[in-house]
Amino acid sequence: MFESERWQSALDFFLTTFAELAILFVGVSFLVSLLDHFLPKDKVRQLLSGNHGYGIAMMIGAATPFCSCSTLPMMVGLLKARAKFGPVMAFLFTSPLLNPFVVALFWVIFGAQVTIVYSVFVLLMAYIFGVLLQNFGFERYVRRDLMQDESCNSDSKVKIREEEKQAKCHNSTKTSCSNTTSDKKQSLGMKLARESMSQLRIMLPYMVVGVAVGAALHGFVPSELFSKLSSRHLLIMIPLSAIIGVFLYVRASTMIPIAASLAAKGMALGAVMSLTIAGAGASLPELIMLKKLFHWPLLVAFIVLVFVTACVTGISIELLTII
């Protein structure tokens, strides 16, 4: 590939990925804020509390076809709603790796056996690490400034506005009172849109850096690198594939066809699975964005979680193919 073509490939990747991420981020943030407005925080806490909360969180994660970066606004929304920390972490891990489309692709390309092993290990490891992070108190490593609402004393301000509206309605005609409902809906929509854009502005520098890194890797790292690595021993190749995967930025649905191509070229299936999980579960752009949300201990714990899951799943699938 010529130098100009590499630059063009990197630029195309940056523009399309950044536009997709920005739109997804604002859209998901708006929907989460809307749910947060109508769904009482007590209800969210109740749903995601106890052992059943992990199951519900992983079901939500498996039902949402997000990539690793666009999962973040929903995670922030759950944390703001004071959902239990362990289930939220289980959701964060499950969402980019497991959804109906990914399962269908796995089933068609790799067969039922590999798909079941992949799905079971993703859910099992998400549950185990969610419980461990909860029990060891890693919630204290979430940055509190981002978890707060835009303004302090928002409840009291809402009450004051409601009282003002009631006074105006009492002193005005019935027609003007009936118009307040539509005005209220419009003002709510504008408020949620402003909050979504505000969250995007906070994350924008991290998003730009993350996508730029992903674009550089996409445009300038040769694809032949992966096939050359296939000659390495499996005990080296599987962890190495997981490390390489972290430096990629791909959706699981995008990674699976690439994985099928690598497997067809002779790359061990365990290493392919390790690359897929690490690439879709903890890409470098996502980690750059997570640094805005997490302190270092929690960020490192998340990386270890994805790395261990990638290695354990890869080794298990390799043993399965040998048996």
Describe this structure in words.
The protein is an all-alpha fold and about 325 residues long. About 80% of the residues lie in helices and about 0% in strands. The protein is built from 16 helices and no strands. The longest helix has about 45 residues, at about 175-220.
Helix tally? 16
State Rg: 22 Å
> On the 0-100 scale, what is the average pLDDT?
77
Q: Termini, distance in Å?
A: 41 Å
- Structural class determined from secondary elements: mainly alpha
The succession of helices and strands, N to C, reads HHHHHHHHHHHHHHHH
Question: Proportion of β residues?
Answer: under 5%
What's the shape?
Answer: globular
How many β strands by DSSP? 0
Helical content band: over 70%
Task: Tell me the major beta sheet.
Answer: none
Sequence stretches where pLDDT stays below 50 over 5 or more residues: 150-161, 171-175
Short description:
This protein is mostly helical. It has helices at residues 3-38, 41-47, 50-63, 72-80, 85-97, 100-110, 112-135, 144-147, 154-171, 174-220, 224-229, 234-246, 252-264, 269-281, 284-290, 296-322.
Provide tags for this entry.
0% strand; mainly alpha; 16 helices; 323 residues
Layout of helices and strands, plus pairs?
Layout: H1 3-38, H2 41-47, H3 50-63, H4 72-80, H5 85-97, H6 100-110, H7 112-135, H8 144-147, H9 154-171, H10 174-220, H11 224-229, H12 234-246, H13 252-264, H14 269-281, H15 284-290, H16 296-322
